[in-house]
Amino acid sequence: MSDAIADAKRALRAELRERRQSMSPQSIATAEDGIRLHLDDLVARLGVRSMSCYLARPTEPGTRAFILAAVERGIRVLLPVSRADGLLDWAVATADGDIGEGLFGVPEPVGELLGPIAVNDVDLLIIPAAAVDESGMRLGWGRGFFDKTIGSMEGCPPVYALVYDSEILVEVPRDLHDQPVTGAVTPARIVEFARAH
Q1: What is its EC number (predicted)?
Q2: Could you give the maximum distance between any two Cα atoms of the chain, in Å?
Q3: Which of 28, 47, 78, 149 would bridge 90 by S-S if both were Cys, CB 3.0 to 4.6 A apart?
Q4: Which comes out higher in pLDDT, residue 132 or 142?
Q5: Would 197 be classed as within a structural domain?
């Protein structure tokens, strides 16, 4: 990655992180309600029976209510668990599952791990993002876990990033290893991107 791209990513991530941290608890709760509604619509439209999602940090678009409702409806939800080698293990979400702190302070499930290839059987990937641009390029938080996962999957299913409405940008800095997404789910809408990559 060139220094200019790395610097641009770092600066944009810092701006987006600061914006998220300044949101009120009420705004975050309202956003989670919208995210859940649109994720429910997406799952129903795609006929999803097995999917991956993640446990959101307090300032991220919330996922917990959606995950619990999906599990109650019988959808198999895999949650990521970060590994020191840069790969993700996966654990099955349960209604009463324990949550701990992962390698980088991220909430993660505690329990039986299924290994990195378990995600190959899902119908849909829901992943975090700092921002997504109008072409579907995703800016992650800089550790590369989800880019590696998406890039290594054969027959990758649809991939949707969760962001706030203001985080769909005209363009984000990108490098060769960065992976585009199929769409984005925001509190107000579902956005589909043309697959020109």
Answers
A1: 6.3.3.2
A2: 47
A3: 78
A4: 132
A5: no
Q: Is the residue at 108 inside a domain?
A: yes
Q: Quick check: is 168 in a domain?
A: yes
Name the residue range of residue 94's domain.
3-192
- Asked if residue 93 lies in contact with residue 67, where contact means CB atoms within 8 angstroms, the answer is yes
CATH of residue 20's domain is 3.40.50.10420
**Do the annotations mark residue 11 as ligand-binding?**
yes
Query: Is the predicted pLDDT of residue 81 greater than 50, yes or no?
Result: yes
15's CB contacts (< 8 A; 6+ apart) are: none
DSSP strand E in 35-87: where? 50-52, 76-82
10 is in an annotated binding site: yes
Q: Is 12 annotated as a binding residue?
A: yes
Locate 132 and state its tokens.
């997504």
Q: Does the model's pTM come out above 0.70?
A: yes
